[in-house]
Specification:
The protein is built from 14 helices and 19 strands. It is α/β, with parallel strands linked by helices. It has three domains: 118 residues, Methylthiotransferase, N-terminal domain (Rossmann fold, 3-Layer(aba) Sandwich); 230 residues, tm_1862 like domain (pyruvate-formate lyase- activating enzyme); 82 residues, OB fold (Dihydrolipoamide Acetyltransferase, E2P), CATH 2.40.50. Strand 4, helix 3 and strand 5 form a beta-alpha-beta unit. The protein is globular, with a radius of gyration of 23 Å. Bound molecules: 5'-deoxyadenosine and iron/sulfur cluster. The site of iron/sulfur cluster (SF4) has 12 residues, from helix 1 and helix 5.
């Protein structure tokens, strides 16, 4: 069987795609890159906003045509699959295999079945499952917990991914050992709310570490860089900031979604903190990590958000001075409390506010990135950039970075990079040699010349 998995949504989904792909390989499938080559296409879906759902609809529409023409088998996994909305879509587009986020290990059973297979249970076996390490990669994701126990009124995730379940430290550290053996140098610990790690298992009481303790444990494993995402401000306690500061491998990067700067909106969102409390968290983080790089998520146009509420979000943005932000227009999701109880704002109001927020974010990202010009950043270069002759990667602070290929720095690795230029979304620099001077750049080839020289390069 030739299979391909298409991934939408967050890093949790990327991890789940890797997990299911490795199951497919162990079942004897060949992974292929395109739908045309495949006889099984699996779509890993996101349900957090209306847009990714529309995308899934349109892809499934195309796939249904191919089903009729050449007997393609079509599957849908991930968050949307868990919802009634997703199941209706699956029926409409004649999806053969449906796997919710808790049933991923049923992929084998699903493919054996001669009939439509829908797996929608949350199965414990997933929590101890260790997928094989990705090969030839310097970075990897590691899911440390699944689900979420908060109940933000706009969010569908508690429905799609269920209540929080933390993996055992033993299982996490074994997975990490495998990653290290495969040459991984940066790991991102993943969960809907990693800071609440262990709480569901009775943190400390049953010998399960807190998230701060887990960071220290992972920091002793020999991995060079540790990042984590994402955090709910209520669970971002000061011991986490302290563990970050005292564990050299943990990168100085915090993604702390604020969602809104207005207390009235935060209350309707059921975020469980006030603007003042959030700012105290930021101050504590900065006390322990003065050079921390801060990112956030913001929703604009939540029901009832007034111009004054929105101004408070802009003010909070200035007060924190975020390095970057993911900004979303509120999307009313069926099944959420805010969909049931509140009226949506007009689309024009929401888009106009988003434009103003994006402008604010750009100013700050430019200012923050410009402050990095002249510094040396340790950059994990992943591989070739879009532009021939350049490599791309990211810093410990998660800034995307581009450098020209240089003698001794023409492949993936972690290198010291002198930053020479910044835009709001990118740092540009040069790799430094042992003497602190930029390494000589390799001559740049046009794409045509690069294509011609490729066979030579392989000799
Ligand atoms: N509408 C808009 N954005 C949303 N998010 C979650 N639910 C919604 C929604 N209904 C955003 C939040 C969250 C991120 C993953 O997606 O900002 O942090
Ligand atoms: Fe990830 Fe949330 Fe989207 Fe699910 S709904 S894929 S958890 S962002």
């Amino acid at each position: 069987m030739k299979a391909t998995v298409m991934t939408y949504g967050c890093q949790m989904n990327e991890y789940d795609t890797h997990l299911v792909e490795s199951q497919l390989v162990s079942l004897g499938a060949d992974l292929v890159d395109s739908i045309e080559e495949a006889d099984f296409v699996l779509i890993n879906t996101c349900a957090v906003r209306g847009k990714p759902v529309d995308k899934v609809r349109s892809v499934l529409g195309d796939l249904r045509k191919q089903k009729a023409q050449r007997g393609l088998v079509v599957g849908m996994m991930g968050c949307l699959a868990q919802l009634e909305e997703g199941q209706q879509i699956a029926r409409k587009f004649e999806v053969d295999v449906l796997l919710g986020p808790g049933s991923l290990l049923d992929i084998g059973k699903a493919l054996e079945s001669n009939e439509r297979f829908w797996g929608l249970q949350f199965k414990d076996e997933l929590h101890d499952h260790i997928p094989p390490a990705p090969q030839g990669k310097l970075q990897a994701h590691l899911t440390i917990m699944r689900g979420c126990d908060h109940h933000c009124t706009y969010c569908i995730v508690p429905t799609t991914r269920g209540p929080q379940v933390s993996r055992t430290p033993d299982s996490i550290l074994r997975e990490l050992d495998g990653l290290l053996a495969a040459g991984v140098r940066e790991v991102t610990l993943l969960g809907q709310n990693v800071n609440a790690y262990g709480i569901d298992q009775g943190a400390r009481v049953a010998g399960i570490p807190s998230f701060a303790e887990l960071l220290r444990l992972v920091g002793q494993s020999g991995i060079e860089r540790i990042k984590f995402t994402t955090s709910h401000p209520m669970n971002f306690t000061e011991d986490v900031a302290l563990a970050m500061a005292e564990t050299p491998a943990v990168c100085e990067f915090v993604h702390l979604p604020v969602q809104s700067g207005s207390n009235a909106v935060l209350r309707r969102m059921a975020r469980e903190y006030t603007r003042e409390r959030y700012l105290e968290h930021i101050a504590a983080i900065r006390r322990h990590l003065p050079d921390v790089v801060l990112a956030t998520d913001i929703i604009v146009g939540f029901p009832g958000e007034t111009e004054a509420d929105f101004q408070q979000t802009l003010d909070l943005y200035d007060e924190v001075g975020y390095d970057s932000a993911y900004m979303f227009i509120y999307s009313a999701r069926p099944g959420t409390p805010s969909y049931r109880h509140f009226a949506d704002l007009p689309r024009e109001v929401k888009t106009e506010r988003l434009q103003r927020l994006i402008a604010r974010q750009k100013e700050w990202s430019q200012r923050r990135n410009a402050a990095k010009v002249g510094t040396v950043q340790q950059v994990l270069l992943r591989g070739d950039a879009f532009e021939p002759g350049f490599l791309e990667g990211h810093s410990r602070g998660n800034h995307p970075v581009v450098v020209p290929k240089a003698l001794g720095a023409d492949r993936a690795g972690i290198y010291p990079v002198h930053i020479g230029h910044a835009t709001p979304h990118m740092l540009y620099g040069a790799v430094l040699g042992a003497d602190g001077q930029p390494l000589p750049e390799l001559p740049r080839l046009t794409p045509e010349a690069a294509a011609l020289s490729a066979p030579l390069a392989m000799l």
